[in-house]
């Protein structure tokens, strides 16, 4: 109020300076992070539903399996941003896309591993879930691990950069790809268990029918 009294009647008082610029930039970056992650998340959800609907020939089954496959991916996004906040990492022009990138990487693992689990159930419907997961991990899981290792290794080179934002981006990306891999190998089978049991029951009945009626085969 004292400052305003010392100004002319037609003068305008505005706040400026570096602090205001930093605050506005941070707000814009945060809004961009939410927007980009939300758009990518919805696109990936639609893609997962479409893939499983095509495989199951049922929209209801595709919707359920797609949504369940999508849940671990969203958990990875929460973990990544949570770790960044807890460790004091800044959300800047580079790391703003880490959420969308986490989803883009994780969806490959989710699709590959969920379909491999379904194939294991189809080939071995009479065994338990641990056998399905073990067999899937020994085949597709190893390929996923190799792909994640090479991708993380490539982005870890950014730690050698002289620019701090690039180093932070490289470190955040390595964390994101590690969490995406672990969520597909550990969380996805647990969430997917009900669908696997349903498939096992269906294939078991088919196997029994074929055994009782060999001519039907």
Tags for this model:
about 220 residues, about 0% strand, single chain, 7 helices, Multidrug efflux transporter AcrB transmembrane fold
Helix content bin: over 70%
Overall morphology = elongated
Structural class: mainly alpha
Q: What number of structural domains do the residues give?
A: 1
SSE succession = HHHHHHH
CATH superfamily, by name, is Multidrug efflux transporter AcrB transmembrane domain
CATH architectural category: Up-down Bundle
Structure description:
The protein has 217 residues and is mainly alpha-helical. It has a single domain, classed as Multidrug efflux transporter AcrB transmembrane fold. It is built from seven helices and no strands. Helix 5 (129-156) packs antiparallel against helix 6. The mean pLDDT is 84.
SSE layout:
Blueprint: H1 2-5, H2 18-56, H3 59-87, H4 98-123, H5 129-156, H6 164-191, H7 193-212
Helix pairs in contact: 2-3, 2-4, 3-4, 3-6, 4-5, 4-6, 4-7, 5-6
What is the gist of this entry?
This protein is mainly α and 217 residues long. Helix content is 80%, strand content 0%.
């Amino acid at each position: 109020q004292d400052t305003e009294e010392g100004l002319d009647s037609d003068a305008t008082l505005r706040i400026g300076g570096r602090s205001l610029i930093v605050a506005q930039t941070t707000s814009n970056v945060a809004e961009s992070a939410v927007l980009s992650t939300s758009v990518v998340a919805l696109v990936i959800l639609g893609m997962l539903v479409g893939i499983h609907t095509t495989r199951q020939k049922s929209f209801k089954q595709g919707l359920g399996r797609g949504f369940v496959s999508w849940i671990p991916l969203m958990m990875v996004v929460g973990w990544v941003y949570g770790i960044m906040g807890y460790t004091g990492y800044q959300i800047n022009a580079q790391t703003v896309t880490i959420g969308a990138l986490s989803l883009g990487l994780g969806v490959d693992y989710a699709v590959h591993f969920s379909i491999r689990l379904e194939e294991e159930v189809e080939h071995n419907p009479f065994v338990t879930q641990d056998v399905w997961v073990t067999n899937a991990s020994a085949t597709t899981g190893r390929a996923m691990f190799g792909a994640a290792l090479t991708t993380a290794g490539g982005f870890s080179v950014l730690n050698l950069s002289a620019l701090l934002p690039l180093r932070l981006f490289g470190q955040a990306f390595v964390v994101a790809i590690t969490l995406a891999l672990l969520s597909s190998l550990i969380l996805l089978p647990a969430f997917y268990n009900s669908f696997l049991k349903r498939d096992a029951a269906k294939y078991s009945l088919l196997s029994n029918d074929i055994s009782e009626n060999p001519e039907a085969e």
